[in-house]
């Protein structure tokens, strides 16, 4: 039975001129049969092929990850720009809030000692604030 198996696993091979002699010499140097030399070379080639297939796959994964990383860097940069824009808006709103607070403080101070109604005082204060925006001074 083992004899039939070895015949079924056999493979007839024709060598190009000179290749048989090179394989025979390599087998002699490696102290093995020509069959063992051929099997060793085929196995080595197959192992290298598998290695490069795996390497190519890993390289493709790394390239995809690098692309994703670049996209994330770009997104982070956009978010940083948006944060700076929002900081500017917050600073502006803080300025507006401070102006309203100051206006209310002025209104409250004037209301304390005034016999005028609140609407008239507000109109005067609004004129005064508008004058400040135009560079005019005021007497407080």
Automatic annotation (TrEMBL):
Gene3D superfamilies reported for this sequence: Met repressor-like
Domain Arc-like DNA binding: 6-44
Gene Ontology biological process: regulation of DNA-templated transcription
Pfam family, any one: Arc
Domain of life of the organism encoding this protein: Bacteria
Keyword vocabulary terms for this entry: Coiled coil
Molecular-function annotations in GO: DNA binding
Coiled coil: 55-96
InterPro entries named in the record: Arc_DNA-bd_dom, Arc_rbn_hlx_hlx, Ribbon_hlx_hlx
Protein name per its UniProtKB record: Arc-like DNA binding domain-containing protein
Organism of derivation: Nitratireductor indicus C115
